[in-house]
Amino acid sequence: LPRVLSGIQPTADSFHVGNYLGALRQWVDLQATHQAFYSIVDLHAITVEQDPADLRRRIRVAAAQLLALGIDPQVSTLFVQSQVPAHTQLAWVLECLTGFGEAGRMTQFKDKSARGGADRSSVGLFTYPILQAADILAYAADAVPVGEDQRQHLELTRNLAQRFNARYGPTLTVPEPYILKATAKIYDLTDPGVKMSKSSPGGSLDLLADVKASVKRIKSAVTDNEREVRYDEDAKPGVSNLLRLLSVFTGASIPELERRYEGRGYGDLKGDLAEAFAAFVTPLQASVAGYLADPAELDAVLRAGGERARATADATVAAVYERVGFLV
Ligand code: TYM
């Protein structure tokens, strides 16, 4: 079977619909056709300051959400990044192949460090994409399901794999991004010009948020001054974003939805999306609560996944170390 690897940061108390539609839905689907490795990337989470108690809680909440969404730990290897030392071992070798300027051109680093100021950004934030490359290359992943915002990091990963192979001989698998166009970028509800993110207060739609509060957010989502429910990303970014969400949550195509709302207003569209979203998250939240009720069992599932992940990733590190010239 071809392999997939992907990761998600445990940096918030809930995943949002951008995470779900951009990546996690594909994680679940790809289990059927691929050997899958899915990681809660806690090492990446500490590139910005984290409270230890929050981090520990969020790792478990992340795991519970992944299980509730349909990641089957018997089928996929679900693990916590810090429990697999091979990631940091491989990252060092890759760091030594990465140009300083090359790393400095990563737009997520530039955005995040611009916000905090250069002196307040860590070196870890700078090398973040190289650790991500190690995550992927350690498992010889063929495909990496992510949202559009990760495309540049995937390009770096491909370049580093090719560079390693050119210098030391064919060793690493060059991965392809797996980005579904229709849901690659979900936008903020209060500002449809920017992507939905964990740090946007009020504009994200969180899977574990109080359902009534989410309904309110949907109903006050920014649209435009027209009345026509029509998909047009440039002229009508807010309405198009809502249509995209409704399409996924109901299974109806966008043209179908455009026909359904002909002659009807944005209120109807928002009301139906609120209903569909509530119907999706209500059982999900109950399922998450069930997993969180037994943290010892959750930790055991993750430890078992970590063991399986180590077996695969250690083999890659051994091959890489041998190629580089270390004594093995
Ligand atoms: P993270 O934790 O920020 O996000 C997890 C996944 O959600 C996607 N995503 C979105 N997709 C569509 N619209 C949005 N508004 C949106 N917001 C987030 C992200 O693209 C991602 O797929 N660097 C990664 C984590 C990572 C990783 C990896 C991913 C570490 N190592 C190895 C893949 C492979 C990140 O910060 O994702």
TrEMBL record:
It catalyses: tRNA(Trp) + L-tryptophan + ATP = L-tryptophyl-tRNA(Trp) + AMP + diphosphate + H(+). GO terms for molecular function: ATP binding; tryptophan-tRNA ligase activity. Its main location: cytoplasm. Keywords: Aminoacyl-tRNA synthetase, ATP-binding, Cytoplasm, Ligase, Nucleotide-binding, Protein biosynthesis. Its EC number is 6.1.1.2. It is found in: Cytoplasm. One of its GO terms (biological process) is tryptophanyl-tRNA aminoacylation. SUPFAM superfamilies: Nucleotidylyl transferase. L-tryptophan binds at residue 135. PROSITE patterns: AA_TRNA_LIGASE_I. A motif ('KMSKS' region) lies at residues 195-199. InterPro entries: aa-tRNA-synth_I_CS, aa-tRNA-synth_Ic, Rossmann-like_a/b/a_fold, Trp-tRNA-ligase, Trp-tRNA-ligase_bac-type, Trp-tRNA_synthetase. ATP binds at residues 9-11, 18-19, 147-149, 186, 195-199. GO terms for cellular component: cytosol. CDD domains: TrpRS_core (cd00806). Belongs to the class-I aminoacyl-tRNA synthetase family. Catalyzes the attachment of tryptophan to tRNA(Trp). Homodimer. This is Tryptophan--tRNA ligase. It comes from Nakamurella endophytica.
